[in-house]
Amino acid sequence: MLQGNARFASGQAEHPWQDLETRKSLIDGQHPDAAILSCSDSRVPPEIIFDQGLGDMFTVRTAGQTLDDAVIASLEYAVTHLGVSVLVVLGHQHCGAVASAVAELDTIASGAGIDLGAAFAAEVTDSEMIDPAANDTEVSQARTGIDSDDVFDKMEELIAASESVLVRSVGASVLAAQEAALSDTDDFERVHIARTIEALVDRSDVIQRALAAQRLSIVGARYQLDTGKVEVLSF
User: Fold this and answer.
1) What burial letters (b/e) apply to 154-163, b meaning 16+ CB within 10 Å?
2) Which of 42, 58, 105, 232 is least buried, going by the fewest C-beta atoms within 10 A?
């Protein structure tokens, strides 16, 4: 797959296994090598960016690669019935779902009278400005005038109560990144991929057993729109 992506990124895609003979050979069954959970973004079609063909990949796509019961059941089918050995959770640069979640968090915070920017500044102060040896949260509160832990706890409650699945999923990832004093959208996207993998394993006994039996590997990856390359985040 990475070799295929290298061909695509360099403008030398081969478009393999897309001919009449391949189509006919797959009429009675499929034997994909990998399952992909990716974003629905029109700029991120997995078969194209990995330069794969018919029958090569079992692909599930949702906005922001969010999970629900249907997504999990589909991936479990790929593992149990199709025998895929690799499951890739693929996010991407300039993800609209992440950008939307960032805006939604600001709206939620504003509606609840929460200064999320000040809370983030408090986290940055804790991580970058205070002597780690001091380990004194009162120093942070005195400097910033805000208890960031209380703010983030309240935001977690508001996110969990949201009617939007994107807020509950992607928004929670953005908040987790902000709690870790991250402010870059690229980092938000990477954190969301990692949390999606964690949630998928936590919610699926089928995937847990396949991992334990070493029949399955899960890979986190992020597609870069500007270079065409796939950044591998974890194995």
Assistant:
1) bbeebbeebe
2) 42
